[in-house]
Structures are given as C-alpha cells and as structure tokens.
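Dear colleague,

As promised, here are the two records you asked about, laid out in our usual form so they can be pasted straight into your sheet.

NAME FIELD: protein one
SEQUENCE, THEN STRUCTURE:
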Amino acid sequence: MKLQKITDSGKRRYDDACGTAHALDLIGERWALLVMRELMLGPKRFGDLRSDLPGISANVLTQRLEGLESAGLLVKRRLPPPASTQVYELTAWGYEAEPIVQSLGKWAARSPAHDPTLPISATSIMLSLRTMFDPARAEGFRARIGFRLGSESFVASIGEGRFESGRGETAGTDAVFTGTPPGLAAAVYGGQPFEALEDAGILKVEGDLVMARRFTTLFPLPSKVKAP
C-alpha cells in the first residue's frame, strides 16, 4: 500500500517520517513551544501572553498562535460576559505536550550555561515545581500552599507523594507565597532565607512558616554536566 504524501506549502518541513521530525514540524518554530508552555495552566489573553513572553513581538505571537491553531494544538474562544474577551486555550491534545515541556526543562537545567537569573513567568515557575518535585523528599508531608504571583493566583496540594497545582484562590491554604516569580525561584531553588527576600521586596511568606520552609526543600535541581 502506498502512503499518501501530505504537503503544506505554508512553511518549511523536514520531509522526514520520524515522529520527532513531525513534532518539530508542529512546534519547532521559534517561540511556539513557549507559547504552549504559557497556556499549560489554562487560557490566556493575547496581551497576557505578550507580557509573559517579553521577547516576542506582536506579529510573531500572532503567527505562532495561528500556526498552533491550524495544527490543532490550541483554539481561541470568547469568554462570557462580563469579561467578553478573547482567549487562547490548548486543546486536549495540546495539553498532552506538558511532559515534553517538563522533560526539556529538566534536561536543559543541567547545562552549565543555564542562567537562572533571567526573567521567568508565573506559569513557568509553577510548571517547574511540577517538574522538579521529588516524592521521596515529600514523604509524610501534607500541605496546601498558595501563591500570589503578580495578578495570578495558584494553589498546590502535596500529599501521598503527589504534587498537584493549578490556578485558584489562596484562601484556606496552610501558607501563601506572595511576590514575584524570581523571588519564588530564589526561595525554592536558591535556598534564600524568607527574611532576606522580604527585605528585598520580592517575596513575602505568610501562614505556617515551618511548613513553607519544608515545602521549599521538595524541588532539588538536577546536577550540572561538566563544562567542556
């Protein structure tokens, strides 16, 4: 049986039957995978995507959104009143790419050239917590932790060696981290004291501080490879 060749004259393709090659046909354009990353925790408006991806132009963002939509990875829809604004949201298939984003992030974190001081979005830091969570370190630990990062709020639940997170209200959580994504990264990955981060104006921790400190120890970074 002869397989039918599918062509797409709108962009360059690898012309390779390997699934990896086709994955790059779908999300290999510059910024495409990062646009998907920013939608992993739910829909966003165009302006929010631009704010969370400060290096992207409006024109390129429009192109990537159109490309991902035509590939079946996202859809655009209008929120009901009173918002009545257009948002972009991943399809069920698009959400299946989260393990790809996680694996790439964990793999690249081993690079000696990785610079953790560069800007990071709220969605990105929350996804990194999902990626780096170590169930062994969380043995016997149960908590609900809230995060207020800029205009976005998230809640994470830890229990029975599982870490679950998503957008949500922080009321009723055991501890709340309020501040900037880099501030949260400094607490979790940099081991910076809460007091120093609060003095710097980038992170404030409220609630059960003992539980909050234990929480920050659950996300070990992978070891770096030796520089060439």
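NAME FIELD: protein two
SEQUENCE, THEN STRUCTURE:
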Amino acid sequence: MVIEPLVERDWPEVRRIYEEGIATGFSTFETETPPWDVWDRSHMEHPRIVARLMQRDRVAGWAALSPVSDRCVGTTLLARLVEESEEAGVWTLQGGVFPENRNSRSLFERHGFREVGIRERLGRLDGTWRDVLLLERRSRTVAVD
C-alpha cells in the first residue's frame, strides 16, 4: 500500500468508499455523495490523501481535512493525516463520530485524540435524531503564539 495525494481522478474510488460509509448508517449524516466540485470546495486543499493498493492501483481508503469533518479513516491514513496537518501548521484537529461507532472511537484515541463531549441531537438520519461524539487532538509540534 502507498499513501499519495488525493486528486480529482481518484474521485470515483473515493465516492465508492464514501457510499459504503453512507450505507452502514454509522459513518455520516450524509445520505448521498456530493459531486466532485461540491466535495472539492468543502475540503482543505492540503492534506488530501488516499491509500492505494499497489497490486491493483485501487484506492483502499481516503482522508481529507475540512473545517469540521466527521469522516472516519483507517490507521495508516489517520497517522499520515495528522503528520501532514502538522506540516501544514494545523494546531487542532477535530473529529466527530457516532457514539456507538466503537472502532472509530478507538482509532481516534490511538492517534492522540481525546473525547471532548457529546453534541446531542446534532442531526437527523433516516428521521431519527443522532448524537455525535466530538474528539479533539492538539499538536505537540505546531507552535501557537
């Protein structure tokens, strides 16, 4: 597996993964994937990364920063996202997961995120109000004046 920048030509594969997350009902409030131009405008230009399986050149996962993001990422992607965010001078990262998504909670904790609190009834999914657990990570390497 290799980690590379996410570029527009990756969008069909990224969209496929996004749709899989939507189908679980545990990853996002979104009910459909946005078109590329909408997604592109709503995410920071850097870092945006994909994990690519070398043998098939297929995207296995992706990560990107937005001002407030609730997307789940894998261990390798989250580690790289943290690294690249610090290189870009980002001091604080926030994540949001559904409280019952134990795998994502554990993943964030392993990468230095702490649970800040519950945002109660943040949005509706399929007609049901859902809470979101807010997680936060402060960089130890980015200087803050």
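A couple of things worth noting about protein two: The chain has a mean pLDDT of 88. The CA atoms of residues 45 and 65 lie 8 Å apart.

Best,
R.
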